[in-house]
Amino acid sequence: MSIEVTQAPMAATPAPAHGADLVTPVVRHRFRGNPWRRPVFLEGFTWLYLAWSLIPIAIAVVFSFNNGKSVSTWQGFSTRWYWGSHSESVFQNPIFRGAIQQTVKLGISVTILTLIIGVAFGIGIHRWRSKTSIGFNFVMVFSYVVPELIFATALFFVFTQLFTGISLGTAAEILGLITWNISWPAIIVMARLNAIGPSYEEAAADLGCTRFQAIRRVLLPMLMPAIFASAVLIFATTIDDFVIVDLLSSNAATQPMSVLIYSSTHGGQSGPQLNALATIMLVMSLVAATVGLLGYRWITRGERGANREDALTTIAGM
């Protein structure tokens, strides 16, 4: 007699669906929520920081148009602190008007001279390959390493004890600000030179240009975005500088707006005139930043289009 043993068929184990290994971590960390959700906390913290930073400035600007002399009680709208009174308006009072003129003078002169020296310095350091060039590279980060107070104090002793031919005043302020801000154009120009490479100058040399012609007709036009950005940074830094110009100014006639505002506030004086003067400084900085942004976008409009076309070409070829 034969006995047949029938084996019950085993239930087929279903194959794991595609991406099933990702289900468990998602379920496990479900309490964390969607990692791609809107960052509400970060947005709220950003708005809180902006409010904390901008509200005091907005209050100072608003009270510069206060009709009364109070800096805490609104007494009506008026522009008397800007124009209208010979002794109280900042544009008519000789002391305030002189501070505005000194600030503009320093901003323009320091920007022009620093650009000329800094751009040449950046090009020279970029092409200088020797052991001694390492030490001169340190000069480019000089203003980022040395505290400004120590730097200004050293310049004060230089102009009062060493180079006595240059007395304290506008000339000393210009030289000090140039030395302090020269790293801006040098570093930005060197970054631009590293980005464009030497191929354009080599092509110009192959076409018969001299070294000076290659720099003037090829290199400098390609460096214009870096030069323009450097000019905006230098101007904005100069009109807001306080430590260097405070130590190197000789009298009230050579004090810019920053020094006048600090000395008046430190002496116990306050009022809408100082708010108006601070508002003028703020407007100058905002105008410089706006001009810099629009100018830089206009100068680099062709580069953005070329980069976009290169990106589309690369994507299409993939």
Walk me through this protein's architecture.
The protein is mainly alpha-helical. It has two domains: 38-63; 94-313, Orthogonal Bundle (MetI-like fold), CATH 1.10.3720.10. Helix content is 68%, strand content 0%. It contains 14 helices and no strands. It has helices at 23-28, 40-63, 94-127, 133-140, 142-145, 148-162, 170-181, 183-196, 199-206, 211-240, 243-248, 257-266, 272-299, 301-316. Helix 10 (211-240) runs antiparallel to helix 13. The longest helix has 34 residues, at 94-127. It is globular. The termini are far apart.
Compose a concise summary of this entry.
It is built from 14 helices and no strands. With 318 residues, it is an all-alpha fold. The protein is globular and about 70 Å long.
Task: Give structural attributes.
single chain, 318 residues, mainly alpha, MetI-like fold, 2 domains, 14 helices, 68% helix, 0% strand, globular
